[in-house]
Amino acid sequence: MACPDCGAPTLAFPVPSEYREYLPGDAAGAEVCTDCLVLRPVDDPPAERPDLTALSDAVPSNDEAAVPFVLLVGLLPSLVTNRSEISDLLARVERAGTDPLLALDRLADDPSVDPDTDLRGRRRQLEQLL
Ligand SMILES: [Zn+2]
């Protein structure tokens, strides 16, 4: 699939049921744009989870942290309305052994992506909100 915003390829992945509450409409999966990092729910994701580090080296290599991290990045554009979801996801990434704010910094520094969202600005807001 291509991203409707920027035309870059997207990466679709199944979202485990414990994370579906973080997606609009309870979808079974999501796709994330490999360039602008916009996240959209999808109803027919692949059964196998692709390697999410294909997005960026900043994405944690362990699946337990990668899924909540990618969902977290997807919710950042609406930080204020998704504040409680975002703080849940931050905690899950942390529990899986990755520092989520450090990973966000690395993502913001990664020249291979061109995020639609100002990751540094959102990270500063996150620190103030949480
Ligand atoms: Zn895009």
Largest sheet: 3 strands, antiparallel
Low-confidence stretches: none
Whole-number tally of structural domains: 1
Query: How much strand?
Result: 5-15%
The percent range for helix content is 25-40%
Strand order of the largest sheet: 1-2-3
Cα end-to-end separation: 35 Å
State the shape.
globular
- Average pLDDT number: 94
Instruction: Give the number of DSSP strands.
Output: 3
> Helix count, per DSSP?
4
Rg, Å, rounded:
13 Å
Which small compounds were modeled alongside the protein?
zinc ion
SSE sequence, one letter per element: EEEHHHH
Tell me the structural class. alpha+beta
Could you characterize what this model shows?
This protein has one domain (10-129). Helices cover 36% and strands 11% of the residues. The protein is built from four helices and three strands. It has a three-stranded antiparallel β-sheet with strand order 1-2-3, with helices on one face. The protein binds zinc ion. Residues 3, 5-6, 8, 33, 35-36, 38 line the site of zinc ion (ZN).
Main attributes of the structure:
three-stranded antiparallel sheet, 130 residues, 4 helices, alpha+beta, binds zinc ion
